[in-house]
Amino acid sequence: MTLATIFTFVFYLLILVTNVVVSVDYKSALTKSLLYYEAQRSGRLPANQRVQWRGDSGLNDGKDSGVDLVGGYYDAGDNVKFGFPMAFTITMLSWGVVDFGEHLGVTGERGNALAAIKWGTDYLIKAHPQPDVLYGQVGEGNADHQCWQRPEDMTTPRTSYRIDDQHPGADLAGETAAAFAAASMAFRNSDPTYSSRLLDNGKQVFNFARTHPGRYQDSITDAGQFYPSSGYEDELLWAAAWLEKASGDQTYTQYLNQASNIGGTRSMFSWDDKFVGAQTLVAKSLVEGRSSDGNLGQYKNNAEQFICNCVQKGSKNIGRTGRGLLWWNGFNNLQYTTAAVYIITTYADSLFKTKNTLNCTSGSVTPDSLLAFAKSQVDYILGSNPRSLSYMVGYGTNYPQRVHHRGASIVSIKRDSTPVSCQQGFSDWFNRDAPNPNVIEGAIVGGPDQSDNYDDSRGNYQQNEPATANTAPLVGPLAYFSA
What we know:
The protein is mainly alpha-helical. The chain has helices spanning 3-18, 26-39, 83-107, 110-126, 141-145, 170-186, 192-211, 233-247, 250-258, 275-287, 296-310, 334-353, 367-381, 406-409, 424-430, 461-464, 468-482; strands at 81-82, 133-138, 160-164, 319-320, 326-327, 358-360, 363-365. 48% of the residues lie in helices and 5% in strands. Its EC number is 3.2.1.4.
């Protein structure tokens, strides 16, 4: 045996050892991804609640302001309801139903997807009691983070924060308008009356956003420490694109065409940066036969360049870990990966249906190649990685055990109803080395570092805290790959 042969043998052996390929059950992952949202529910839980370790919580939310703000979702591992990421979560869940509703139907998960959306939109309707009023947060971030308590035991202030005509927030209002419009499309066939109500809310909130520019954290300063917005132009485009799609009203087409800033080629898509989302909605419509009036063609060019960069065929390719996971930064990296996976999957679907290919700097890319890349990212998240670790909690047999999540890390109130005090949660539960007593199925944590390493410790919130915005973009692709 020659030295070259030995080298080749060792090389491929190392690949097998370090990149373990697992059999992926996309349908199981899809089911769990929607189950996760039941674990994040705030308010009075329904009779058909499947996550039984949770109980009612936040039943007085809004009372300080004389409004009913019971319901909605906790954003991540804490007990605050942040409206900005919540609305993005609802928009992405709705987009999954709009694009992949048939696939969700085949898998039997369409009803659960709509239930997850409605839990959010019912709350957003409450949060919008007047045309120029939108409540954007319940709970104080700093006070909440000083305690480690189950949501059922909360003793921290449940202060309600809002934007209005004197305290604007076009980004928060714009994202909420997008959520209303996208959800209206998701419910169009199953509940036309509710769909119409959502669309009316969306139009109203968009008008508020458009006529009252400004960043929402200047009005809701507490939110700026946790979910600061880099600007509001992207949310206005995102909302206009969804409202145009939902209503067919040319007013929104004109807004898209006349926008002076459509973002250029972005480096990411996230709860803060929606330019890629708006660009992709326009691009899909152009691929599917719409005429490219005005500057709509530039939306398509920018969206395609982003996708090319993700699949490593562009001029400014997105970074990757040593074993191929798309990489942005060390703080909750998977939120960007799942969002990019959605963009690639939905655009590939449009290209496939219209028999088109994507033209990148390094050559043309077929829809099949795009889908293969998207699937490789999903597979990595679900365990095809050097650690054979699923970054979706509860999926498979090897997943994070000490997730940074208050409710999951403390014994269920159904098993022990003794209240857990603010600091007691840290001493009795946070500092324990044992696995969490409750498995928060479907939650996607922050993920590995750039060297594919991961630390499963409760204090490692950068890598080990799940968030609603992490899982939402993956629901649609999981449905697509399941059916």
